[in-house]
Predict the structure.
Amino acid sequence: MAELECIFPKEEIPNEHSLFQRVHRNLFRNEKLAISLVFKNHGDGMSTDWSKYSTPMDTKERVRIDQKDPDLYGVIKMNVGEVRAIEGQIVEHTPLNENRSHTDVKGDKTPKQTVYFNRIFQWSIKP
Amino acid sequence: MPALLEKERDLLSPTTSFSGFSCYPKHSWNYRTETVWADIEEIDDHIHLWSKKSDAVKIVVSENYSIEVKSVFAEFIAKVVESRYIVDLKDNWDDNHSRGYSDKTFYNAVNFFNKYANWILAERGTVIEPPDILPSNDGSIDLFWNKKSYDLLINIPSSPSELVKFYGDNKKESKIEGSFILDSFNQGIFLSLLQE
């Protein structure tokens, strides 16, 4: 069956904007983040939401689409320009019909990239 | 006020005391009446005081693995206690299909640092700061030094055939990156960062 075409256009994301990412509470224990499990690719890249079309709360609540409980999740925030400054990382708007903000961060996530991601993220909503 | 360290709970075996985890001073290893028992949370708050009582502490990771850590590495002992929960994580523990962790991998990670810390103590007479011990990809475990003047991340794989990968820098011009086999590596490679 042919894939449905996305109803939203793909856009260029400015460096000064932000990306939001959900973090399961089990990945944040004793005030320490399991960084290699947060900053990792799932398929084509690391799934995030663009701040133009999403708030941190939208990102948290959107987990309901997968029949999961939003209360189990926190949300982190990263500046797009700082993500692009990490070696090999490409920020690409990949809208979905159910989520216009969807954005992939593509590129290898080795220990080097993980260390750099850890330096730039901030908590928007702690789990 | 909760009991800090309860003695004379000698009728309990290590595996029935609390989640299969126990710590007790080396000198009392064979004398059950002198064994010091404590819940994980209690040890966390009082590990420094407690570990002054002996030269080394034996940490039982599981029925299969235990490790002896010098009391001078008290902060490291606390980190091990804090992170022991990793061994109890089962597949899909993060609701995102992450694998669980074996006691062997946890032991490998802890043992790697313990051996390294002992080597530096013997060679340089210094006690290095311990890393955070974190769950990582595909059943592997991270040792992560997230410090003001440097970062160092070492990933200990779940399979002995896989390479240990690492990256570190002093947040300036000095960087190290690479991989090695767990049991054979140039011990000097991390020295410049860990002694920052």
Remarks:
- The interface with chain A takes residues 82-83, 85, 89, 93-96, 98, 132, 134-137, 140, 142, 144, 146, 151, 153-155, 165-169, 177 of chain B (CB under 8 Å).
- The first helix of chain B runs from residue 14 to 17.
- The longest strand of chain B covers residues 141-146.
